[in-house]
Amino acid sequence: MNFFDELNPRTKSAFQTQELNFDPYNANQIQEILRGRDDAFRDGVLTDEVIPLVAAFSAQEHGDARKAMRLFRTAGELADREGADMVEEDHVRRAQDALEKDRFRDFLQGTPTQMKAACLSIAAKSLYSRDDYIITGELYDAYQQITNAIDMDTIGIRRFRDILDEMQLSQVIETKEVNMGKGGGRHNSHRLLHNPEAILDIVMEDTRFGDISKSSLKRFA
Question: What are the residues facing 191 on neighbouring strands?
């Protein structure tokens, strides 16, 4: 017999867990939080653009105050390592790029090579095509060219769609359904949520992709 089953409804209610959802912070709220923590820096070392830019990046990407503080701190550490007198906009932008690479590297760590090839296909298409959203068929064509170039097994379109679903769940891509017009049907279309240059750099750290250069990826797009 389950002990929990013996409890009366009021007691059960007291034991039940409840999920709390918090709305993400907007840019103005993040600015207020950061200004309350700018005493971590010496007076006068932050240029006027630093806090608004950190807040803008953070609000657009996640709305998480802790991650905003990490970006704020990383920009300061970068300026300190370089011996700069001021923390400037460029330090924030480079800190953002570095943190984005770290997050994506964590995502790819231990993932199958097929996932990396799929990431490479959407990064190449995002970098070299004019479309923000790319339909599944076009991504699969690019993926096939990449796997052929490195003599790697090519998975079928169904498994490729599964990988795209995994990428969406991990917030690597955003997916929406689009209507291609009369006779074209409806298709899933995908947009990369990360810097494609950063993704290319990280994926190509894998020696399996050593025979592919950034310039050669343009023909796959």
Answer: 174
